[in-house]
Each structure stands twice: as C-alpha cells, then as structure tokens.
Specification:
single chain, Chorismate synthase, AroC fold, 5-stranded antiparallel β-sheet, 8 helices, globular
C-alpha cells in the first residue's frame, strides 16, 4: 500500500497531523553525492507560502536517518524524516464522524472500521507529497547527469489556460527555465490571470482545479515493454497515487479521438541522422515503448474538496443528514503546488523505469 517501484523502491510513512512524515528510498546507487540545496529548493516550491495557498506553514526541515556517510550515499536504504510542527488537530474533532464531500473520509472510515486518523486527512493528505518531492529531487540529480530533463507547467487553472508544449519541438532550455519557476507557466502573461482566478475563488469560499502538462526530454528510443510493461501504464499508476489526480493522458490524449488517421499519424523523418517524427500526437510512446520523441503527459487535478460553502453530509453516528460547514486552513487551488509534485513523481518514475529496463 505504501511502497512503489521496481528497482528503486520508495516507502512512505506518517500522517498529516502525526508526529512526523518519512520516506525510505531503497536502491539508490552507492557513492552518490546529493545536492541538498536542490532538495530544499524543490520543497520550497511545493510549500504553501502566499495568499494563494493554505495558511498552514511547515518548514519541511528533514532529518536523514540512514543511507549517508561522509556526504555520499552508502547503498543502504536512504531514510528521510520530516517532523510536523504546525498542526491544528482540533479543527477535525467534529469532522471525525462527518465525512467531507469528495475527501477520502468516508471510504477510509469504511475500509478501516473507523480507526483511520481523520486529522487533516491522515495518510490521504496532500501533506505527504513533500516526501514525493524529496524522491523526485534525488532522481532529478541522477537523470540530469544523463541529460534527461523533466519539467511541468500549469496548463490550465479553472477556465484560464496557458499555451501547451509544441509536442514535436520542445527546447531543453525551456524545460530548464520552467524548473526554476515557483508558478511555472509557458506564457508569463497568463500568471496574473491565474492568480486572480485563485483569489476570486477564495473570496467565494470555493475552490478551483486545473491541468498540469509535463514533458520528459532526451529519453532514448526502445525503453519499455508492450501490454502491462508499458511506460504509459507505469507512469499512470504512479500519477494516480498523487492526491487529487483524476485523469491522465499522453500526447494529444482524448483529442486524438477527434482526428482522422491522416491527422493523428506521426510520420517519420530524418533529423541530424536520427529517426524522428514530424508530429508527436502519441506523446513519444508507441506500443508502450519510447520513440525518442518528447514524452508528454497531462494530468487533471480536481478542485480542493475543503471549501467554506455549506454542504450536506451524513453523520456516521446517527446515519442522519447534516449540514456541514468546514473550518480550518485550506487551499483555494492546489494545482499551483501539485505541479511540482507531478514533476517530482515523473522524475522518480523515469529513473525507476529506466533502471529496471537497463537491468534486463
């Protein structure tokens, strides 16, 4: 339940309002020097820190319990722990028996016979995504040395849209620039419109969702396997593990269903003595295997479930309908934070997938 990966495995532990969160990474090569400033930078991008996010502020100061010696990895399990310091668990006292609409409260209550930790969503909370960012930051350092780059941008926030990647021609410099941005968009003029949409939604005591678009650049052709070993199925499984993800598509995605074959087919050509395609509607993957074109994936993020508006629920003690008015500290939008989590998850996924395929 809490472990993912084939060659490089990650195991998460902890809950939103528990004493601490933690991640164990098993399979990281020995002798690797880790740039902790890069981990800190990635955690800072994910962290709420303005009027556009929740007021819960966690420093994400981590401790390393194992797997490092003299500044380098030892080959043993690499374990990070992040203490929780800014919790307000009293906000959830009454909510224990009042499942919040579109949260995991009810499904978790049924599965665990009421013994689940309801504070802040417990293990289902987006708080745990800080751990995924650590895994992604380490994977990024390994893959960047191989000139493999991953970057994401906010493709849409509500009805406000950024321009998308040119699927067949994505400059490496563009990805490197996106990695530096706290609010990553391709069209800088759209940032203020998206932020205005967040503030308007916040004033209405509501929330808004969005879409994250991610590109993986410089993957060689031939990585992956057909059917159940496809890169698409692997990444989809990992991406759906991120809280609030409700849809995943590759390349042109659902839009490809509206095309004719003559429009959708990616015709081959030679570019600098390499076989490439003129278009990239399939998102760099055919038959589950990479083509050397950019791998492009989009992820749909639902609106934050916790909103200030009155909603109905059922009191689990009486099985009677109740009006619910949620108090506490919540994000009016999470896509501007989740974008960094998606980036990290794809970095980790690509590293594990490559490592597994290269062992064969």
């Amino acid at each position: 339940m809490n472990t993912f990966g084939d060659t490089i495995k990650i195991t998460l532990f902890g809950e939103s309002h528990g004493e601490a969160l933690g991640i164990v990474l098993d399979g990281i090569p020995a002798g690797m020097k880790i740039d902790f400033s890069d981990i800190d930078f990635e955690l800072t991008k994910r962290r709420p820190k303005s009027i556009y996010s929740t007021s819960r502020s966690e420093s994400d100061d981590y401790q390393i319990l194992s797997g490092m010696y003299d500044g380098k990895t030892t080959g043993a399990a690499l374990t990070f722990v992040i203490p929780n310091k800014n919790t307000q668990s009293k906000d959830y006292d009454e909510l224990r028996f009042l499942p919040r609409p579109s949260h995991a409260d009810y499904s978790a209550y049924v599965k665990y016979n009421g013994f689940n930790d309801p504070r802040g969503g417990g293990i289902f909370s987006g708080r745990l995504t800080a751990l995924l960012v650590i895994a992604g930051a380490i994977s990024k350092q390994i893959l960047n040395r191989r000139n493999i780059h991953v970057a994401s941008h906010i493709y849409a926030l509500g009805l406000v849209s950024d321009r998308g990647f040119d699927l067949a021609d994505i400059p490496e410099t563009s990805l490197i620039q996106l990695q530096k941005l706290d609010f990553p968009v391709l069209d800088s003029s759209i940032e203020e419109k998206m932020k205005a949409e967040i503030l308007k939604t916040k004033e209405d005591e509501d929330s808004v969702g969005g879409i994250v678009e991610t590109c993986v650049l410089n993957l060689p052709a031939g990585i992956g396997d057909p059917l159940f070993g496809s890169l698409e199925s692997y990444l989809s499984s990992l991406l759906f593990s991120v809280p609030s993800v409700k849809g995943v598509e590759f390349g042109a995605g659902f839009a490809i269903s509206k095309m004719k074959g003559s429009q959708a087919n990616d015709q081959y050509t030679m570019v600098h003595n390499e076989i490439k395609t003129k278009t990239n509607h399939n998102g760099g993957i055919l038959g589950g295997i990479t083509t050397s074109m950019p791998v492009v994936v989009r992820v749909a993020i639902k609106p934050t479930p916790s909103i200030g508006k009155k909603q109905t629920t059922v009191d689990l003690r009486t099985n009677k309908e109740r009006v619910l008015e949620i108090k506490g500290r919540h994000d009016p939008a999470i896509v501007n934070r989740v974008v960094h989590v998606i980036n990290a998850v794809v970095y980790f996924g690509i590293l594990d997938f490559l490592s597994t395929n290269e062992k064969r």
